[in-house]
Amino acid sequence: MSSVRNPVADLRELGIENASNVYYQLSPEKLVQQTVERNQGVLSDTGALAVNTGEFTGRSPNDKFIVKDDITANTVNWNNFNIPFTTECFDRLYKKVTAYLAGKDVWVRDCFACADPAYRIGVKVITEYPWSNLFAYNMFLRPSEEELELMQHDWTVIQAPGFMADASCDGTRQHNFAVVSFTKKVILIGGTAYTGEIKKGIFTVLNYILPHDKKVLSMHCSANQGSNGDTAIFFGLSGTGKTTLSADPSRKLIGDDEHGWTDNSVFNFEGGCYAKCIDLSAEKEPEIFQAVRPGALLENITFFPGTKTVNYADKTITENTRVSYPLTYIANALEPSIGAVPKNIFFLTADAYGVLPPISKLTPGQAMYQFISGYTAKVAGTEAGVTEPKSTFSACFGAPFLPLHPAQYAQMLGEKMRKNEVNVWLINTGWTGGPYGTGSRIKLAYTRAMITAAIDGKLESVKYRATPVFGLAIPETCPNVPADILDPRNTWADKAAYDAKAASLAEQFISNFEKYAGAADKEILDAAPKI
């Protein structure tokens, strides 16, 4: 750990010698100005900075490595997301990256992760571009002048998009990489300018440290708080509505993506939001829409021709267009972003097969089964002839970021659910009346009404019945929602087609779960669908 008072000395200590200019802790205004002056970005008509991240417009999970050493060898769940990297390769690559930065301008930012001071870590982010440093300003917690004076940094992130690895000798798969060393406490990123690698690098670290060392459950979820202090958390993969549904004008936002659950609280890891922009509108997502203002960083968007007005519908560069902004840009954000232990947990899935009910209440066994499964379905893209949805199973709704075995997170969740008597709900934000192509997307207003009813306790005294195959308890009535959509089978004209599709989806669940069955207890195994 080193003090932050002399940034040049800090860099020297990290092996970065003779940097041309060291820009330390610059304001967002200055970082925006430098980005524009260097022709690396332009301002939109709302004053947000718009940049293009280049070759990579998303994370590259096949190029994410963890150094396999004494700390990680027997604790990390080595798989396609946690790919082992040797200490020798890391040390060599580190020297190459730090040598690459010598003689260049670098931007340095000291910040925190984790809103709860008991679990807070100091993070030093060193970037090759000013706008990458703006991302760090937006997304991490911003220390006060007093905190900065006393701050120690625990972890270092070095991001050098212009450095290309040589796969023949550097131990990487190709020229880009994100490597985490738990021994050196360094995240090394190169060959990609996609800023999400910085955010998810620290998330991966916290997903190891908090459960393994601190007995705190780390979660890929959003969270909000009601006027009476009740917390709700929302798990879900990309495209299921996690950010949209947690941004509720009647509730305070704790955070939109990464949280920890202690014995007595839920806290945000971040100081900002990294929201998807595709099809963003003031009508659908007013809180996010109005956050696109000076200081916000837009990625890979396009403008309407001849203007600086963002065309949010345009997927020309990528469907994964993004905007980052400080949490304070959301009017009803909770400060500090720490809430009580949750009363309700929502697992969000966008079931494109139209099989799962729009809302169902889960038993503890079903909750852990669904948590480990982490199901959603991606709808067909724009490729010609692709018409079938594709199932996605991502353990704990965040497999790419989980260094430990999914069963460890599920076990912690199960213990916390029981201890705190939490209600767990499965919410299908996907299709009804048939699969994608035949049926229609469940109305957002209905989904919001179901979540509100669950939070307000309006579903406690209604009658429930179990669905066939999945055995999910569905309410027979729900305020402000037509009763006939609550049972998905009712909404299909062809009941035999529904039964066949339900059996097919059940088989996918069972097949996916085989790899976890050895670590699951009887209660979880009994929650599997029955064919």
Largest sheet: 9 strands, mixed
Spans of at least 5 consecutive residues with low confidence = 381-386
Q: Report the sheet-strand fraction.
A: 15-25%
Distance between the termini: 56 Å
**Structure summary, number of beta strands:** 28
Oligomer: single chain
Q: Globular, elongated, flat, extended or rod-shaped: what is the shape?
A: globular
Q: Which structural class matches the secondary elements? A: alpha/beta
Rg from Cα: 23 Å
Helix content: 25-40%
Mean pLDDT: 94
Q: Helix tally?
A: 15
Task: Give your account of this protein's structure.
The strands form six sheets. Strands 11, 12, 13, 14, 15, 19, 20, 21 and 24 form a nine-stranded mixed beta sheet that branches. Mean pLDDT is 94; it is low at 381-386. The protein is an alpha/beta fold. Helix 2 runs antiparallel to helix 4 (130-139) and helix 10 (364-373) packs antiparallel against helix 11 (406-420).
Could you list some keywords that capture this structure?
single chain, 531 residues, alpha/beta, nine-stranded mixed beta sheet, eight-stranded mixed beta sheet, 27% helix
